[in-house]
Amino acid sequence: MMKRRSPKTVLALLGILLIPLFGGLLTGTASAHDGQSTVIYFDLFPDGTAQGQIEHPITLLNEEFATGLDQDAATENDIAAIEPLIRAYNEQNLTVTSPDGQPWDITFTGEVEPIETETQIYAAFKFDVENVFESAPRVFDVTFDGIFDNGTHFAFVVMRTDPVTGVFLNEGDAVPGIVTDDSPNLGVNLDDPNTLKAFTGTVALGMEHIFIGTDHILFVLVLLLPAVMMFSLADGWAPVPTFRSGLWRVLKIATAFTLAHSITLTLGGLDIVQLPSKFVETVIALSIVATAFHNLKPIFANRESSIAFLFGIFHGFGFAGLLSDLGVGNGQRVLSLLGFNVGVEIGQAFIILLLFPALFLLRRTTIYVPFLRVGSIALAVVATIWAIERIFETSLGIDTVLEKFTRAPRVFFLVAIVTLFAAAIYKIQDQQGTLAPVSDDTEATRAPDLVDA
Q1: Domain boundaries defined on the chain
Q2: pLDDT tens, 1-17?
Q3: Looking at residue 66, what DSSP letter applies?
Q4: Are the C-beta atoms of 366 and 429 separated by less than 8 Å?
Q5: Which of 23, 28, 275, 402 is the most exposed place for a label (fewest CB within 10 A)?
Q6: 411 burial via Cβ count (<10 Å: 0-12, 13-18, 19+)
Q7: Could you tell me if 87 and 128 are in contact, meaning their C-beta atoms sit under 8 angstroms apart?
Q8: pLDDT tens across 114-157, in order?
């Protein structure tokens, strides 16, 4: 006779099994950053403007120009110091022409950025295209004669942004090709506008924005922390009685957040209502602070869905601002909004499914209430730093610290470890008889008849 696994064991196993699945979805895209070759990005927009950047691996710059930069720790200031030298080199070697032979007027802006990859840091040099075309260019020639002296390096040409064909923030696939020492010219002939591809492109963009948008992830997390608990003035925080009641609370929070940001994403995306981006991004940071303080001293006890709806309004304007920055054309705006929103919901669901098993397992252990408080304080501190950065338009380095923990795939290993830890702590305290009693609040039991655990 087959031994029946306990619901808690099944839940822990589910959490662990989901992690490599979602990890594969996020890290499966091939990267043009191979650690050896240059990458030339182009951003094309429906209004006929264009821009881009050239990224060189630090080791390549050291070989060719003896810059002496640290391939693992080069900073923006380090790269800025060599910018005049590399700018002259890029200007000399990069040429783009239209089918009629008209050259594009490319101007390097002087803006530089260190791009951290799995292999090493790349130095990014941004450029503007001074030409304004009647519409987004579809056919052009790219010639790059640079850094091929030893015959082993390439230059990947990547269409990073092209809303006409549904390409947004593409930093993976080398499309449409490469240029080499033997063949320094590449003819680019982009696909015709494709409605399905444009839709799936914005779905992917919405998913990516959730996964790389640390502020949105932390807002979801700060809402999830109390979702497996009920609050009363007499007893304080107490665990929800069942898996279905906890899941029901999470679903209400997620639904409220979805409704709110869908409304304002539509209003902002269609230019019906516009708010200053600095104000919106600051409020998004402060939404995490306010929700964290609510976790410490509940104001809307057991009504986290109301908080999610209130602040979801501003998160929606933040999403709309991203689409506006990408230059999505008015003719594609409704389709793009729909696809982006679908992608956001998929990404949000992934995050909830990844984190909920560990939180549910921990909820009855003696460490959960202290964890709720300490976690909320930590999130409030991070978000306060964000708010200061956004108000004063400065950088205090908090994003660099967070990226060490939130970047895929390491974040999935971290979640797996936490889920295993939660299962172990639950098992030990269950055997010791020290698990906290569950809440008997009637609100927590008014859930649909979902699978109990």
Answers
A1: 38-193, 197-445
A2: 444 445 455 455 555 44
A3: -
A4: yes
A5: 28
A6: buried
A7: no
A8: 998 877 899 999 999 999 998 888 899 999 987 655 555 778 88
Distances 55 to 234, 268, 292 between C-alpha atoms, Å: 60, 33, 39
Q: For the purposes of burial, counting CB atoms within 10 Å of the CB of 68, is it exposed (0-12), middle (13-18) or buried (19 or more)?
A: exposed
CB within 8 A of 190, min separation 6: which ones? 138, 139, 159, 162, 164, 165, 176
Helix (H) or strand (E) holding 161: strand 155-161
Query: Which residue type does 243 have?
Result: F
Which pair of tokens denotes residue 47?
A: 């209004």
Token digits of residue 97: 């022409």
Tally of CA atoms within 13 A in the half-sphere of 26 that contains its CB: 25
φ/ψ of 281, rounded to 5, equals -65, -35
pTM greater than the 0.85 cutoff: no
Residue 299 tokens read as: 């104001």
Q: Is 230 in a helix, a strand, or coil? A: strand
Other C-beta atoms within 10 Å of 413: how many? 13
Q: Are 149 and 64 contacting, i.e. CB atoms less than 8 angstroms apart? A: yes
Secondary structure (DSSP) of 297-364: S-SSTT-HHHHHHHHHHHHHHHHHHHHHHTT--GGGHHHHHHHHHHHHHHHHHHHHHHHHHHHHHHTT
Helix (H) or strand (E) holding 61: helix 58-65
